Amino acid sequence: MTIRWTYAFIDRPAPLLGRARDFWTAVTDTRLSAPRGERGEFATLLPGGGADACVKLQGVDSGDGGAHLDLAVEDVRRFVDGALRLGARTVADHQDWAVLRSPAGQAFCAVPWDGESVRPPVVRGSRLDQVCLDVPPSRYATEVAFWSALLSDWTSRPGSLPEFHAVVPPAGLPVRVLLQRLGDERPVSAHLDLACADIEATRADHERLGAVPVARGAHWTVLRDPAGGAYCLTGRNPETGGLPAV
């Protein structure tokens, strides 16, 4: 089940979608596509320079939002059938694309590949390149096994700390997957991670654009965007997504 392209989807409450659009186009140096959907709830962040988009926005009617993955494939029906055999379940089937949930309940979409191949560049020392799945302890092993099997031609490996597991795509695909084992039992969720050459410089830039600091660790910082969505700045190489050499 080869994945030909990946999208990180930013899900934010519909009444706050304008704030999210302004913020995320600024930090990714993109422009907004024309809105799509019955209520104009979908949009794509379009990079310049001939690169292909890999980030989209959605206004959601309930909840605080979060993030999810869109996986672009050549044969959506075959991919969906394979995902169901691995333990996914269908939320909505539109024939040419589908909304699914992982065994722990994380939403993701299977969409047709439209020839995307050129990854957007690093912007001011950072790149939005990762969707992190925050998984309760009781579902963590099952979820790691599911995503490792679903993305079978990616590299599945333990993270730098025991509570993390990375599923890294082949070179050229723009968005990777990180699974994080939570310390308590709560529903699975997802957030965005940016790889940053200089976390402090990126944090200051984002705060000037309206982000609010939440927490800080040795190699990561949690912020909330102007629409209230949490995301992380992480100390990784924005070109490769890897951790810096020690």
Automatic annotation (TrEMBL):
Domain (Glyoxalase-like) ranges? 14-110, 130-234
SUPFAM superfamilies, A to Z:
Glyoxalase/Bleomycin resistance protein/Dihydroxybiphenyl dioxygenase
Q: What is this protein called?
A: Glyoxalase-like domain-containing protein
Q: Report the InterPro entries cross-referenced here.
A: Glyas_Bleomycin-R_OHBP_Dase, Glyoxalase_6
Q: Which domain of life is it from?
A: Bacteria
Stretches of the chain forming a coiled coil according to its record: none
Gene3D superfamilies in UniProt: 2,3-Dihydroxybiphenyl 1,2-Dioxygenase, domain 1
